Amino acid sequence: MARLPHLEADQAAPEYRDMLQRNTNLHKPLVNSPDMARAFSGMGGYIRFRSKLDPRLREVAILQVGWLEKSEYEFTHHVKIGKEFGVTDDDIQAMMAETEGKPSKLEPLARAILRGAREIVGELAMSEATR
Question: What is the pTM for the complete model shown?
Answer without folding.
Answer: 0.76
